[in-house]
Amino acid sequence: MLRNLAILACGGLALAAPKPATDIPAISTKAPRGSEAGAAPTRVSPDPTGPTTHGPYSLSSATTTGPEPGPTTVLLKNDGPPAAPTGNYYNENGKFEAPFQLPFTPGGGKGVNGSNTPRYMVESDYDYASVVLGLHQEFIELDLFNHGVAKFSEQEFLDAGLTAEDRTFLSYMATQEADHATLLTNMLGESAPKQCIYDYPFTTVREYIDFNIKLTRWGESGNWGFLSHLDSREVSTLLVQAEAVEARQQMIFRQWLGLHPMPFSFVPGIPQSWHWTLLAPYISSCPENNTRIAWQNFPQLTIDNLPNPNRVSPNDTKTDEVVGPRVADPSTSNLTAPESCLHNTTLGYDCAPAIAHNRSEPLTFPGRKVFLSWESPGKPVGPNNSYVTTTAAGAPRFVAWLSQINLTYTPLEVTGQNKGWTWQPPNEVYVGDPAVNGTVFLAVTDSDLYLTPFNLSLINPHVNALGIMIAG
Ligand SMILES: *[C@@H]1O[C@H](CO)[C@@H](O)[C@H](O)[C@H]1NC(C)=O
Ligand SMILES: *[C@@H]1O[C@H](CO)[C@@H](O)[C@H](O)[C@H]1NC(C)=O
Ligand SMILES: *[C@@H]1O[C@H](CO)[C@@H](O)[C@H](O)[C@H]1NC(C)=O
Ligand SMILES: *[C@@H]1O[C@H](CO)[C@@H](O)[C@H](O)[C@H]1NC(C)=O
Ligand SMILES: *[C@@H]1O[C@H](CO)[C@@H](O)[C@H](O)[C@H]1NC(C)=O
Ligand SMILES: *[C@@H]1O[C@H](CO)[C@@H](O)[C@H](O)[C@H]1NC(C)=O
Ligand SMILES: *[C@@H]1O[C@H](CO)[C@@H](O)[C@H](O)[C@H]1NC(C)=O
Ligand SMILES: *[C@@H]1O[C@H](CO)[C@@H](O)[C@H](O)[C@H]1NC(C)=O
Ligand SMILES: *[C@@H]1O[C@H](CO)[C@@H](O)[C@H](O)[C@H]1NC(C)=O
Ligand SMILES: *[C@@H]1O[C@H](CO)[C@@H](O)[C@H](O)[C@H]1NC(C)=O
């Protein structure tokens, strides 16, 4: 016993002093042709901690508008499409139908038998345009996380219940974004877009976190939406590995606002045009010649009685209790002490940062009336005001709720010009799991077309307006 301990103490890990990095033999990896072995590649962003300017775009008229003109759209006819050609595999007895392609490697799958070398580059216009959008998301997150650290002092973080260590952690999240931006840039090549100038809506730490919750939700859902549709499975593989970290960031921001970290079992994917619609209002200008975005900008849908997560009673939220007019502007945080849940330490009301809180009164609930207003198309939005909102939909009739793996429609009661209301639906994904919770996407539509996660983008021609709501 004693001898063993002595051995441990002399030669084992217990007493080993940390070695300087230069003494540790490099792990042997074969460097790709043309690159230097050993040193890690540099990041794409000019200076991940450096200052960038912020604020709205100052010129009133744009030099270019709308997406880059492309070849004519091939019209899609939708009268009961057939299932995909591989859609007939059904294994009824557990016996394999095909020979193994390699030892312990059953037949099927893509890229698992060494017949092709992986190529980590986009492989089609669809891939390219999707990753360009994803890169814009990485760039704004990089800027937004750094900006939070720069704008708010240690004391302001403390007042919101967050420590200096949390603030340091936020900086760390910005470096994760620099890494993601680098990865995506490399998968696009030299025409990859560059970082832009952003215009943010928040003035307090709570509002900042509220905005981050929405922005990281559409970033995450935006990526989930296209990953399995990409031609390049290699690109998709790397994006999943980046997105796994972004999903954690999203959860952290919910915890910082004292919300339940993940009150759902699934996270929905959204079409690229939904992602671009939500993101564009916060980009004020992009560098000259920046690659343009191919996706659609829908008119904005505003939830007039958006529940305020800073209230002890979110159901008491007054209309327009948000800091500004844009689609994801956060709820106001300057409430009076009895109204605010931030310094209320009573269980069920406390919304200070925590791993998990129980809120006695949920932010929203099935049967809650949701009041909506939406813009008409034709508004200039996005970088340099050079994109224009459009819709191909007819008269608005439904509200589509996208959350978890469900798309649910509720009837829209139109009450006036671009105004109406609906009820929050009570449906469940599986028994006991409410379909609507967390940050959900709402669209006003002209139809209740049946769609599932893999064919959701077929909703776009039916969308009148698009919004986002923290439902719990
Ligand atoms: C190897 O995988 C590819 C698809 O990635 C497939 O086309 C090919 O048939 C497979 N080869 C064998 C021997 O199964
Ligand atoms: C957008 O506006 C900025 C600032 O006015 C300008 O520097 C930039 O070249 C413009 N970008 C495009 C794509 O026109
Ligand atoms: C933008 O493109 C034009 C035309 O190709 C070129 O003359 C100009 O130098 C480019 N500007 C930048 C900043 O790259
Ligand atoms: C929510 O507020 C509405 C309007 O004030 C009220 O009618 C309703 O009873 C409230 N519901 C709950 C569950 O508090
Ligand atoms: C909160 O700020 C808004 C403007 O942003 C102002 O209209 C409102 O009166 C303020 N409320 C309180 C309680 O200070
Ligand atoms: C928290 O808010 C609830 C509801 O308004 C109230 O009953 C309770 O006394 C408050 N607790 C504290 C510690 O302020
Ligand atoms: C939190 O809420 C759950 C479900 O509503 C309940 O079962 C649990 O007892 C609550 N926890 C505390 C500490 O109040
Ligand atoms: C959403 O989740 C929270 C936290 O678990 C819960 O309190 C709330 O009741 C849920 N909302 C619905 C509609 O069930
Ligand atoms: C929600 O999605 C699940 C899984 O696709 C499905 O079984 C269920 O019927 C859907 N529920 C509603 C209300 O759409
Ligand atoms: C979407 O997919 C579902 C099957 O999951 C199918 O029933 C539905 O018809 C499809 N919708 C359209 C518009 O093709």
UniProtKB/TrEMBL annotation:
**Signal peptide range:** 1-16
Q: Which UniProt keywords apply?
A: Signal
Annotated region described as Disordered, given as residue ranges: 24-92, 306-336
Does this entry carry the keyword Signal?
Answer: yes
Q: Under which name does UniProt file this protein?
A: Ferritin-like domain-containing protein
Composition-biased stretches, type Low complexity, lie in 63-73
Establish whether keyword Signal is in the entry: yes
The record's section on InterPro entries has: Rds1 (IPR039254)
Q: Where is the composition biased (Polar residues)?
A: 306-316
